[in-house]
Design a protein that fits this description.
16 helices; Rossmann fold; two-stranded parallel ribbon; alpha/beta
Length: 335
Amino acid sequence: MREAFEKLTHEVAKVVVGQDEVVEQLLMSMFCRGHALVVGVPGLAKTLLISTIAKSVSLSFSRIQFTPDLMPSDITGTEVIEEDRTTGARELRFVKGPVFANVILADEINRTPPKTQAALLEAMQEHQVTTGGMQHKLPEPFFVLATQNPIEQEGTYPLPEAQLDRFMFNVTIGYPSEDEEAEIIRRTTSTVEGKPTAVLAGSDVMRVQELVREAPVAEHVIRYALRLVRATRVKEEGDKPQMIEDYLAWGAGPRASQYLILAAKAKAVLGGSFHVTPEHIRAVAHPVLRHRLLTNFNAEADGVSSDDVIESLLEEIPVEGLGAGEKRQMDAVMR
């Protein structure tokens, strides 16, 4: 699996400069049978990165440009009346939409109304499309990799929390370093064009997905992931970090716990480890939790983001099972 990961990152690097952590997180979501939402300002190669990953594996690829006039049938497909010219008989035939591919690039997913956004829900969760009372299975493996612009909100429709929760990762892309940007300029203003080669087949990807799930996880690691997630639920009783009480309106659900463990398994195996540790949980906490924590007005007023809340959570929730209050008391004693 580690060899497969290194092959893929090498192919992606032929086209995309830098963004190593983003590439790793996207491949981890693929290896975990998850979907990923990629958030970044324009010009950071979000679309290029996803299409390059699709070209690096022998999988069918479909790009859907989300626009305000896009209809659900434009994504899932529609039924058309077909006439048999010999008999004159007519029947309905389902014409598959662009969602019938292995890798779906949902470009600028927040530019289409919620009705159209919801057309992806069944596909993302059940890997099927239902129309006219008939279920149509999607090809396996199946991934939705969506992009979103965080700064331009005019003419956009924020994703519903139910749909956000179905994305395993919320991956944020930042600006490249000075050296990386110089390399980008050199590559994109010359005649030399990097072309990735497909290094993995669909069957290889599915085998890697099985390997991720076979990685063992100790009970204390599962409990640690559970404590992190349950501490975000403001309305539930229990000892919580003060930042949770002050700045969160709603916490993460059970999918967060599942994805924390799955992502930590992928992180462990990609790093050459044969078992999952709490450090692997901590390494994937931000992309798994940042879109599942709903901050309140106080957070907006104080300039506190969900990433700030997660950082506080990682600092205050202990690995060994002490509560936040007990940890503060222990720290005071040790001082």
